[in-house]
Amino acid sequence: MYAIVEIAGQQFKVVKDQKVFVHRLQTEEGKQVAFDNVLLLSDGDKVTIGAPAIGGAQVSAKVLKHLKGDKVIVFKKKRRKGYRVKNGHRQSLTEIQIENIVVSGAKKATKAESEGAKKAAPAKATTKAEPKAVASKVEAKPVAKKEEATQDLSKMTVAQLKDMAKAKGISGISSMKKADLIAALS
């Protein structure tokens, strides 16, 4: 089992008992830390992808130590100008050890997450009932006013408008602009 989790602004692929170096965390050495921004979980053949994160999934880890990374030298030079700048940098890191990957039931969702889940659930339900809704929309379209039709035409692309004009038999559409096509179709 592995997970892709976001830790301190970076994404890591982690497995249980793995040691990972991440950007400095504000947690003391030896303390437990939990990351709930899990983007992907894989358990054998079963893969779960979050949108953007998996609700209830959590990765827990233990902070082993704080340290500094290797020195990086940044040297800038412009030839024949006498310009040379040398800078160095050592990134502050934290070494953590992944202790557990929890698939679900890690914690209760906050209000914002629960509202997002409520909004996502009806969207899935409407996709199943979509063919019925499309049939009712098709029946209601001939009754629509010309103003609504022109608003719909303005939302369409030029290629779509040209296809409609070809279907209606309008000539000279290759040199028309979008406004001319809308005028010719209405």
Topology, element by element:
Elements: E1 2-7, E2 10-15, E3 19-23, E4 32-35, E5 38-43, E6 46-49, E7 58-78, E8 83-102, H1 111-128, H2 130-140, H3 146-155, H4 158-168, H5 178-185
Antiparallel strand pairs: 1-2, 1-5, 3-8, 4-7, 5-6, 7-8
Offer a few descriptive terms.
186 residues, 2 domains, flat
Give Rg in angstroms: 29 Å
Low-confidence parts: 108-145
* Shape category: flat
Strand content: 35-45%
Number of strands: 8
Largest sheet, in brief, is: 4 strands, antiparallel
Structural class: alpha+beta
Fold and architecture overview:
This protein is an alpha+beta fold and 186 residues long. Helix content is 31%, strand content 39%. It has 2 domains: 2-77 and 86-104, no CATH class; 126-185. The protein has 5 helices and 8 strands. It has a 4-stranded antiparallel β-sheet with strand order 2-1-5-6, with no helix packed on it. Helix 4 runs parallel beside helix 5. The radius of gyration is 29 Å and the shape is flat. The model is unreliable at 108-145 (pLDDT under 50).
